[in-house]
Give the backbone structure.
Amino acid sequence: MNAPVLVGPLRLEGTLCVPERASGVVLFAHGSGSSRFSPRNRFVAAQLQDGGIGTLLLDLLTREEEAIDARTGNLRFDIELLAERVVGAAGWLRSHPAARGLKIGYFGASTGAAAAIVAAAEQPDWVSAIVSRGGRPDLAYSDLRRVRVPTLLIVGGHDLEVLNLNRGALTQLAGVKRLEIVPGATHLFEEPGALESVAELAREWFLKYLGGLP
Protein backbone atom coordinates (compact mmCIF):
# COMPACT_ATOMS: atom_id res chain seq x y z
CA MET A 1 0.00 0.00 0.00
CA ASN A 2 1.12 3.56 -0.61
CA ALA A 3 2.09 5.15 2.68
CA PRO A 4 3.11 8.74 3.45
CA VAL A 5 6.20 8.41 5.64
CA LEU A 6 6.45 11.29 8.09
CA VAL A 7 10.05 12.23 8.92
CA GLY A 8 9.95 15.30 11.13
CA PRO A 9 8.16 18.02 9.16
CA LEU A 10 8.68 16.15 5.87
CA ARG A 11 6.26 13.85 4.09
CA LEU A 12 8.13 11.23 2.06
CA GLU A 13 6.40 8.88 -0.37
CA GLY A 14 6.63 5.17 0.34
CA THR A 15 5.13 1.79 -0.52
CA LEU A 16 4.72 -0.54 2.44
CA CYS A 17 3.98 -4.25 2.14
CA VAL A 18 4.02 -6.50 5.22
CA PRO A 19 2.96 -10.12 4.64
CA GLU A 20 0.95 -11.93 7.29
CA ARG A 21 3.25 -13.36 9.98
CA ALA A 22 6.23 -11.49 8.54
CA SER A 23 9.60 -12.30 10.08
CA GLY A 24 10.87 -8.74 9.66
CA VAL A 25 10.67 -5.69 7.41
CA VAL A 26 13.30 -4.21 5.08
CA LEU A 27 13.63 -0.50 4.33
CA PHE A 28 14.99 0.19 0.84
CA ALA A 29 17.38 3.12 0.50
CA HIS A 30 17.63 4.00 -3.18
CA GLY A 31 20.53 5.94 -4.63
CA SER A 32 21.92 7.74 -7.64
CA GLY A 33 18.72 9.46 -8.64
CA SER A 34 16.52 6.36 -8.31
CA SER A 35 13.14 6.13 -6.57
CA ARG A 36 10.73 3.68 -5.01
CA PHE A 37 9.69 2.76 -8.56
CA SER A 38 13.13 1.33 -9.38
CA PRO A 39 12.38 -1.93 -11.24
CA ARG A 40 15.46 -3.60 -9.77
CA ASN A 41 14.58 -2.84 -6.18
CA ARG A 42 10.90 -3.65 -6.77
CA PHE A 43 11.99 -7.05 -8.08
CA VAL A 44 14.11 -7.71 -4.99
CA ALA A 45 11.29 -6.48 -2.75
CA ALA A 46 8.86 -8.92 -4.36
CA GLN A 47 11.25 -11.80 -3.71
CA LEU A 48 11.60 -10.76 -0.07
CA GLN A 49 7.82 -10.59 0.28
CA ASP A 50 7.55 -14.11 -1.16
CA GLY A 51 9.91 -15.17 1.63
CA GLY A 52 7.69 -13.66 4.31
CA ILE A 53 9.64 -10.43 4.74
CA GLY A 54 7.96 -7.03 4.71
CA THR A 55 9.32 -4.17 2.60
CA LEU A 56 9.21 -0.38 2.60
CA LEU A 57 10.17 1.14 -0.74
CA LEU A 58 10.84 4.79 -0.01
CA ASP A 59 11.69 8.01 -1.82
CA LEU A 60 14.37 9.62 0.33
CA LEU A 61 13.87 12.98 -1.38
CA THR A 62 10.70 15.06 -1.63
CA ARG A 63 9.32 15.87 -5.06
CA GLU A 64 10.78 19.37 -4.85
CA GLU A 65 14.18 17.97 -3.89
CA GLU A 66 14.02 15.42 -6.71
CA ALA A 67 13.47 18.26 -9.17
CA ILE A 68 16.53 20.07 -7.81
CA ASP A 69 18.59 16.88 -7.89
CA ALA A 70 17.56 16.17 -11.48
CA ARG A 71 19.19 19.49 -12.44
CA THR A 72 22.25 19.39 -10.18
CA GLY A 73 22.83 15.76 -9.13
CA ASN A 74 23.99 17.03 -5.75
CA LEU A 75 21.44 15.70 -3.28
CA ARG A 76 21.93 12.06 -4.25
CA PHE A 77 25.49 12.39 -2.88
CA ASP A 78 24.45 14.16 0.34
CA ILE A 79 24.96 11.03 2.42
CA GLU A 80 24.29 12.72 5.77
CA LEU A 81 20.95 14.04 4.52
CA LEU A 82 19.95 10.67 3.09
CA ALA A 83 21.03 8.87 6.28
CA GLU A 84 18.90 11.22 8.38
CA ARG A 85 15.93 10.29 6.21
CA VAL A 86 16.67 6.56 6.64
CA VAL A 87 16.81 6.93 10.43
CA GLY A 88 13.60 8.96 10.41
CA ALA A 89 11.83 6.41 8.21
CA ALA A 90 13.00 3.58 10.47
CA GLY A 91 11.50 5.42 13.43
CA TRP A 92 8.23 5.77 11.53
CA LEU A 93 8.33 2.08 10.65
CA ARG A 94 8.91 1.06 14.27
CA SER A 95 5.67 2.78 15.28
CA HIS A 96 3.55 1.66 12.31
CA PRO A 97 0.87 -0.88 13.33
CA ALA A 98 1.76 -3.25 10.47
CA ALA A 99 5.45 -3.37 11.40
CA ARG A 100 5.52 -2.72 15.13
CA GLY A 101 7.71 -5.24 16.93
CA LEU A 102 9.37 -6.55 13.77
CA LYS A 103 13.12 -6.46 13.26
CA ILE A 104 14.24 -3.98 10.61
CA GLY A 105 16.79 -4.46 7.85
CA TYR A 106 18.23 -1.97 5.38
CA PHE A 107 18.71 -2.68 1.69
CA GLY A 108 20.85 0.01 0.06
CA ALA A 109 21.75 0.46 -3.59
CA SER A 110 24.55 2.71 -4.91
CA THR A 111 24.72 5.85 -2.71
CA GLY A 112 21.72 4.55 -0.76
CA ALA A 113 24.00 1.85 0.64
CA ALA A 114 26.23 4.53 2.14
CA ALA A 115 23.17 6.19 3.66
CA ALA A 116 22.07 2.87 5.16
CA ILE A 117 25.51 2.32 6.71
CA VAL A 118 25.61 5.80 8.24
CA ALA A 119 22.06 5.34 9.54
CA ALA A 120 23.05 2.02 11.15
CA ALA A 121 26.03 3.68 12.79
CA GLU A 122 23.91 6.57 14.10
CA GLN A 123 21.03 4.44 15.42
CA PRO A 124 22.38 0.89 15.84
CA ASP A 125 19.50 -0.38 17.99
CA TRP A 126 16.97 0.12 15.21
CA VAL A 127 18.48 -2.15 12.54
CA SER A 128 19.36 -5.85 12.59
CA ALA A 129 20.94 -6.43 9.15
CA ILE A 130 22.15 -4.59 6.05
CA VAL A 131 22.42 -5.66 2.42
CA SER A 132 24.19 -3.50 -0.17
CA ARG A 133 23.64 -3.98 -3.92
CA GLY A 134 26.31 -2.38 -6.07
CA GLY A 135 26.76 0.03 -3.21
CA ARG A 136 29.22 2.78 -2.41
CA PRO A 137 30.15 2.00 1.20
CA ASP A 138 33.33 4.01 0.67
CA LEU A 139 31.16 7.14 0.89
CA ALA A 140 30.49 6.15 4.52
CA TYR A 141 34.12 5.27 5.25
CA SER A 142 34.39 7.05 8.60
CA ASP A 143 31.30 5.20 9.88
CA LEU A 144 32.15 1.66 8.76
CA ARG A 145 33.90 0.69 12.00
CA ARG A 146 30.83 1.75 13.99
CA VAL A 147 28.52 -0.66 12.17
CA ARG A 148 27.99 -3.77 14.29
CA VAL A 149 25.03 -5.39 12.52
CA PRO A 150 25.55 -8.21 9.97
CA THR A 151 26.33 -6.61 6.61
CA LEU A 152 26.29 -8.27 3.19
CA LEU A 153 27.95 -6.51 0.25
CA ILE A 154 26.83 -7.73 -3.20
CA VAL A 155 28.81 -6.59 -6.24
CA GLY A 156 28.89 -7.59 -9.88
CA GLY A 157 32.06 -9.38 -10.97
CA HIS A 158 32.49 -7.00 -13.93
CA ASP A 159 31.84 -3.86 -11.85
CA LEU A 160 35.54 -3.60 -11.16
CA GLU A 161 35.81 -0.12 -9.66
CA VAL A 162 32.91 -0.65 -7.26
CA LEU A 163 34.22 -4.14 -6.44
CA ASN A 164 37.54 -2.68 -5.34
CA LEU A 165 35.77 -0.06 -3.23
CA ASN A 166 33.69 -2.77 -1.54
CA ARG A 167 36.74 -4.91 -0.85
CA GLY A 168 38.30 -1.96 0.93
CA ALA A 169 35.11 -1.27 2.88
CA LEU A 170 34.86 -4.92 3.94
CA THR A 171 38.14 -4.65 5.85
CA GLN A 172 36.74 -1.72 7.86
CA LEU A 173 33.42 -3.23 8.92
CA ALA A 174 33.58 -4.38 12.52
CA GLY A 175 30.74 -6.90 12.80
CA VAL A 176 29.60 -9.97 10.86
CA LYS A 177 30.29 -9.25 7.21
CA ARG A 178 30.47 -10.88 3.82
CA LEU A 179 31.23 -9.91 0.24
CA GLU A 180 29.35 -11.79 -2.49
CA ILE A 181 30.44 -11.37 -6.11
CA VAL A 182 27.87 -12.15 -8.82
CA PRO A 183 29.94 -13.55 -11.72
CA GLY A 184 29.60 -11.70 -15.03
CA ALA A 185 27.35 -8.98 -13.64
CA THR A 186 27.88 -5.27 -14.21
CA HIS A 187 26.79 -2.38 -11.99
CA LEU A 188 23.05 -2.59 -12.71
CA PHE A 189 22.88 -6.41 -12.67
CA GLU A 190 21.13 -6.41 -16.04
CA GLU A 191 22.64 -9.71 -17.20
CA PRO A 192 20.40 -12.82 -17.29
CA GLY A 193 20.05 -14.28 -13.81
CA ALA A 194 22.12 -11.56 -12.10
CA LEU A 195 19.28 -9.81 -10.31
CA GLU A 196 17.80 -13.15 -9.33
CA SER A 197 21.11 -13.94 -7.62
CA VAL A 198 20.98 -10.63 -5.76
CA ALA A 199 17.43 -11.31 -4.58
CA GLU A 200 18.30 -14.83 -3.40
CA LEU A 201 21.36 -13.66 -1.49
CA ALA A 202 19.44 -10.79 0.10
CA ARG A 203 16.53 -13.00 1.08
CA GLU A 204 18.79 -15.58 2.73
CA TRP A 205 20.66 -12.86 4.64
CA PHE A 206 17.53 -11.16 5.91
CA LEU A 207 15.81 -14.43 6.81
CA LYS A 208 18.86 -15.39 8.85
CA TYR A 209 19.22 -12.10 10.73
CA LEU A 210 15.64 -10.86 10.94
CA GLY A 211 14.41 -14.05 12.54
CA GLY A 212 12.92 -15.96 9.63
CA LEU A 213 15.16 -19.01 10.02
CA PRO A 214 15.46 -21.30 13.05
User: Anything to note?
Assistant: The CA atoms of residues 160 and 170 lie 15 Å apart. Helices lie at 39-50, 63-72, 79-95, 111-122, 160-172, 194-209. The chain is about 35% helix and 20% strand.
